[in-house]
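Morning. Coffee machine broken again, so started the prediction first thing and wrote up yesterday's gels while waiting. Chain of 462 residues, entered below exactly as on the submission form.
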Amino acid sequence: MDVSQPSKWRAERPPRVLAADDQQHILEAIQLLLRPQGYEVDAASSPVLVREALATGSYDAVLIDLNYTRDTTSGQEGLDLLSEIVNADSSLPVIVMTAWGNVALAVEAMRRGARDFIPKPWENERLLSILGTQVELHRTLQKAERLAAENKLLRAQGRPEFIATAASMQVVLEAIARIGPSDANVLVTGEHGSGKEVVAQTLHALSPRSSRPLVAVNTGALPDGIFESELFGHVKGAFTDARTDRIGRFELADGGTIFLDEIGNVPLHQQAKLLRVLESGEIERLGSSRTRKVDVRVISATNTDLRAGCASGQFREDLLFRLNTVEIHMPPLRERREDIPALAVHFLTRYATRYRRPVNGFDALALQQLMQYSWPGNVRELEHTLERALLMCRTHEIQPCDLGLNLQRSANQNLEELSLESVEAILIRKALQRFQGNVSQAAEALGLSRGALYRRMEKYGL
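Came back before lunch.
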C-alpha cells in the first residue's frame, strides 16, 4: 500500500472526504484506510445525511455508494444523489462505488458527472490513487479560481494600476486581496519609492469604504508645530495664526481611510497623541475641549524598522501593535526585476500621453540597461527616469543615452565629472543608507531640515 500520501498534506489543510454507504462496516473500512493517509473522513449512512453534511461542511471529495436500503440493486437512488451533488457544485469531485457494478451503471454514473467508478470490493491502492488524484485536481482548480478572482479584483475598473507579475509579489497580491475588503489596520513596509502608497490606494479601493475619502498624510514631513493641527484640526484662536476653525485629516477621512506615510519618523512625543486616537476613535481639535468621534481605517507606511525603533526606545511598542494588525512588505525593485519591462511601458505610455510625444517603445540596449540597473530609488526612480528619458528622446524609441543611468549607477566616479545635482543625489543616498532610511537622522547629518530633505528626495526619485 502507498504510504507516501500523508506528506503531501503536511504543508496545507488535510483533505476532507465525505464517505456514504448504508453498511457500517464499509464506512469503518474506508475510515481505517484513509485516516492513516492524512485524510479527515466524515461518514454518512443515507442520502439524507449526505445532504445534511454537504449543507454544513466543506469537502475536497465525496465517495458514495450507489445502492441504499430503498433500492439495493439498480443504483438509481445513488445516481439521483450523484446528480444532486453535481448540480449543486460541479467542481466537487464525486467518486461512486457499488457491489452491483456493471458497465452500463458505470457509464451512467460518469455521464451524470462522477469523476471515477470503483467496484466493491475495492483495491486499496486503486482507491487511494483515484482519491489522491481527484483531491489534488480539486485543490489546483480552487487555487486557480481564487487567483483569477484576486487578479480581477485588483485590476477592476477605477482602481489604481498595480503592476505585479514577479514571483516575489504574489504574496503581496494575495495579502491585498484578502485584507483589502476588511477594516483591519495595515502597516506597509519597504524601501523609499517601492510602491507603498499604491498598496494603500489599492487596499482602500477594495474596501467597503472605497466611496469615501482616502486621505494621505506624510507624517514624517510634518513640523512639530503643526502636527496636531494637521491631523486633528484646530479652532479659531488656538494659536497665533489660527484665524478660523480648521478640520483635521482624521475628520476629513471619517468613514474612509487615512494613509499615514513615513510613520516611523513621527517624533516620540507626538506618538502618544496618535495612539490615543487609534485606541478610542476620538479626536479633539487643537484648542477645543469637545471630543469628536471618527470612524477611520488606518493604513500606515514606513521604510524604517519599527521593531528596532521599539527596542531602542524611539518608537512606542503599543502604537506599533495598533498599526500593524496586518503587515505587508513591498520588495524593492531589484528583487522584482520581472516587473521592470511592464512598469517601464506603463510609465512611458503615461508620459507620452501627458507630453504628447510620439515615443512608443525602447531600444533593446536601453531595455537591457533598465533591467541591469540596481534602482536604489525603486519604482519612483524608474518613473522619474522614464519621464526624463521621454523628454530627452529624439526618436520613436527610448535610447540608452536618454536614460542617463551611467552617472546615477556609478557612485565611484570622479566628482569633477559630475554635475552638482548628481553629487547632491549621491550624498543624500549615502546618508539615507548610513542611517537605514531614517530621514530625520539623515537630514541632521546633511545639515538640512526634514522638509528640505524630503523635497530633494522627491526631486531625485529617492
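Confidence is low (pLDDT under 50) at residues 1-7, 407-414. Going to sketch it on the whiteboard this afternoon.
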